[in-house]
TrEMBL record:
InterPro entries: PAP2/HPO, PAP2/HPO_sf. SUPFAM superfamilies: Acid phosphatase/Vanadium-dependent haloperoxidase. It comes from the Bacteria. Keywords: Membrane, Transmembrane, Transmembrane helix. Residues 73-195 form the Phosphatidic acid phosphatase type 2/haloperoxidase domain. The keyword ATP-binding does not apply. It holds the Pfam family PAP2. The chain crosses the membrane at residues 42-65, 72-94, 130-146, 155-174. This is PAP2 superfamily protein. The keyword Transmembrane helix applies.
Length: 216
C-alpha cells in the first residue's frame, strides 16, 4: 500500500502526467487494425463482470458440488467484497479521466470534469480485477486438482494474464500507464490477502457437515 500511496501522491503533485500523456499519444498513433483487434480480444482477459467473475463462479460451483463444503464459496465471496469496497471507491475518490476523455485536465487526479464513460480511470479496474480474480481461480483450481499448481501453471494463470492485460489496456488507451501500475499495486495487496487466509480452518458454526474442509 505504501507504493500505491506514493504513486498517488506523485500524481496529485503533478509528476508523471507528461509521461502518461506521451505514452497515450504514441498508442493512439500506432493502432493498425491487425494489432488493434487482437489487443481488444486479449484485453477481455481482464474483464471482471464479463469473464473473470463468471469463470470464478463456475469453478466455485464445481468445488462446492465436489466437496459439499460452504468453504468453497469463501474465496469468491471475499474477492467480490474486497474489489467492491476498494477499487470502485478509489475510482470515485481520485476522479481521474481516461486517455480518451475529451474534457479538460484529463491526466490530473481530483478532476471534477472527469465524469461519464471516460471518468473514474484511477486505479485501473482491469489490473485490480486480473490480480484478484486469477488468484481466486488459482486457489480453486488447486483445490479441484488436489495439488499445488506447477510453475508453468502458476505462470499461465497468475502472471501471463497480468502482463497481457497491462500491455493491452495501455495500448488501447483504456487507462494511463500509471493507472495500470496503481491497479497492479492495489491488486497485489488484495491478492496477497486472499492467499494468506486459511480458508479451511476459519471458524464456522456447525452446518450439518457443510463446514468441512474444501481443500483450499
Amino acid at each position: 500500500m505504501a507504493a500505491f500511496a506514493g504513486l498517488t501522491v506523485a500524481l496529485a503533485s503533478g509528476h508523471l502526467l507528461t509521461f502518461d500523456q506521451r505514452v497515450a499519444d504514441w498508442a493512439f498513433a500506432h493502432q493498425p487494425a491487425v494489432v488493434y483487434w487482437p489487443a481488444r480480444v486479449l484485453n477481455y482477459l481482464g474483464q471482471g463482470g464479463q469473464v473473470l467473475t463468471p469463470i470464478s463462479l463456475i469453478l466455485t460451483g464445481l468445488l462446492l458440488y465436489r466437496t459439499r463444503s460452504v468453504r468453497a464459496v469463501l474465496p469468491f465471496a471475499a474477492a467480490f467484497v474486497l474489489t467492491y469496497f476498494t477499487i470502485g471507491p478509489a475510482k470515485l475518490l481520485f476522479d481521474r479521466a481516461a486517455p480518451a476523455f475529451t474534457g479538460p485536465d484529463k491526466t490530473e487526479l481530483f478532476n471534477p470534469a472527469a465524469i461519464g464513460k471516460y471518468g473514474m480511470s484511477y486505479p485501473s479496474g482491469h489490473m485490480g480485477n486480473v490480480l484478484v480474480w486469477y488468484t481466486v481461480m488459482a486457489l480453486l483450481l488447486a483445490a479441484l486438482l488436489h495439488r499445488q499448481l506447477t510453475r508453468r501453471e502458476w505462470l499461465a494463470i497468475r502472471v501471463a494474464p497480468v502482463v497481457i492485460v497491462f500491455c493491452t489496456t495501455v495500448y488501447l488507451g483504456f487507462h494511463w500507464v500509471t493507472d495500470s501500475v496503481a491497479g497492479v499495486l492495489l491488486g497485489l495487496v488484495l491478492a496477497r490477502i486472499l492467499t494468506r487466509i486459511p480458508w479451511d480452518t476459519i471458524p464456522l458454526p456447525p452446518l450439518k457437515g457443510w463446514e468441512r474442509p474444501a481443500g483450499l
